[in-house]
Amino acid sequence: MSMHRLSGCPSCAEPLEEGDRFCGVCGYAVSAPPPAAVDHPTIPIPPAPPAPPARPAAAGAAAGGYGSPAPAPGVPAPGVPHAAAEPAPGWGSVAAAAPTLVGDPAAWVTAPAEPEPEPEPRQGPAGATFAASGHGNPYGNGTPPEGTPWGAAEHPYGAADGPETRHDRPGGDPGTPGEGTPWGAGEAPYENAPQPGGAAGGKTCVACRAGHVDTDGYCEHCGHAQPRERDHIEEELGSVAAVTDRGLRHHRNEDSFAVSATALPDGSAATVAIVCDGVSSASRPDEASAAAAVAANEALLEALPRGAHPQEAMHEAILAAAEAVNALAPETPGAQNAPACTLVGAVVSGGLLTIGWVGDSRAYWVPDDRAALPRRLTEDDSWAAQMVAAGLMGEAEAYADVRAHAITGWLGADAYDLEPHTATFKPDHPGVVVVCTDGLWNYAESAREMAQVVPADAATRPLHSAQVLVGYALDGGGHDNVTVAVVPFATHPEQEPGPDAEPGPAAGPE
């Protein structure tokens, strides 16, 4: 490593990589002469060369150098990266640590492109060393607020040492909750505290950290569009967790989810997960998915405690979701392009696993014992699935066709005759149910591929697993919104294996 390479941008102190010619934050030309420092001497400057010698510098000047007053508390010295001066927030979740990245741990730390001495590890507060965190920031500009401590084992510039950016979490913005605090469905994870230079009492831009955000959601200083409240949401209950993310290509998140738990009449617990995907070609798809998820969840929470069979309750919940989406359609007779979405849901109760769906969102069974067989539990309402079912095309050929993802079933006022699909399964071994939109399964389509990317501890850390799965889709390209719920399924010790012991249907799909 060159002895004279700048460690940070001379203009904004953003850390630089080897070979950088321009700062990625402020655009400053690194090769240009550094900006002229404003002279604030701590002792008088002699007016002419033959002047008498100046008095020795004060103690404060010795620390900051001649002409540079000692930095105020919480303000990094010029040329020193912010990370070396002040801590900043880490990711908050119920998990004690950041999500584990999928893949070979040895591949997480990438060697430099050219042989050179390995750079010294970064030192954080209290001497803690931070390796590359792997959590990229989709909005990756600027530095965190002053005086905010780093979370455990996290560092915002760790990913700068390797060519790959991970997206298991959307970047550690200053507005994220503290460690141990999950995001609720109504929280805005990207809201930031006002910064120096920003407008008091308003939101500050997540990109430049200085500009005020106007009512349209754009920074008045740099013009950066701010993330919406639904861009990334996480939620965890004791028995289920879900994560949704806007992805890397869409301008908004049109997915939605609902997770909940309730008690059955016999006192046992029932866990519910609903995932909906708005149809982008329809109007207001984000509203459609949100309305469907809420309606289906509420219908299940009303039916299950009064003793309704889970499969019957799921069927009625899908019909209730359809009515909620239909209510969003314009009242004009014959109006086209009504709001629409797909739906997939799972209920774990009384040793049974009940699945319901309309559209191409899916549910997968992944056993805890990875030697056992994983299974896809749903059949798509799509053009490709119809071609395969009719024997007209093979699965690989059908899903390679440009018409593959054209759905043939959905919730919406302009849908054909609604036919909710439901099925009940009775596995004889523990595992997890992965309920997801095509934003995930496009990158892990088969049950075996899905099982390979689900963490081994998914049953005990469902939120962590949902985070890893969303990150897997984002690392694959993030071409669509990504939503996934992970529902652990534990077998009952008193349950004896019977004819339905294989994780097949106890009651066939309707």
Report on this model:
- The protein is an alpha+beta fold and 510 residues long.
- The strands form 3 sheets. Strands 5, 6, 7, 8, 11, 12 and 15 form a 7-stranded antiparallel sheet that branches.
- The chain has helices at residues 59-64, 82-85, 285-303, 310-326, 383-389, 395-400, 438-441, 447-453, 462-475; strands spanning 122-123, 129-130, 232-236, 241-245, 255-263, 269-278, 340-349, 352-358, 362-367, 375-376, 411-412, 421-425, 431-436, 482-489, 505-507.
- Strand 5 and strand 6 (269-278) form a beta hairpin.
- The termini are far apart.
- 42% of the residues are buried.
- It is built from 9 helices and 15 strands.
- Helix 3 packs antiparallel against helix 4.
Estimated helix fraction = 10-25%
Mean pLDDT equals 73
Which regions are unreliable across 5 or more consecutive residues at pLDDT < 50? 35-48, 54-116, 119-181, 183-200, 495-502, 504-510
The gyration radius over C-alpha positions equals 27 Å
Largest sheet: 7 strands, antiparallel
Backbone structural class: alpha+beta
Number of helices: 9
Strand content: 15-25%
Order of helices and strands: HHEEEEEEHHEEEEHHEEEHHHEE
Sum up the overall morphology in one term: globular
Number of distinct beta strands: 15
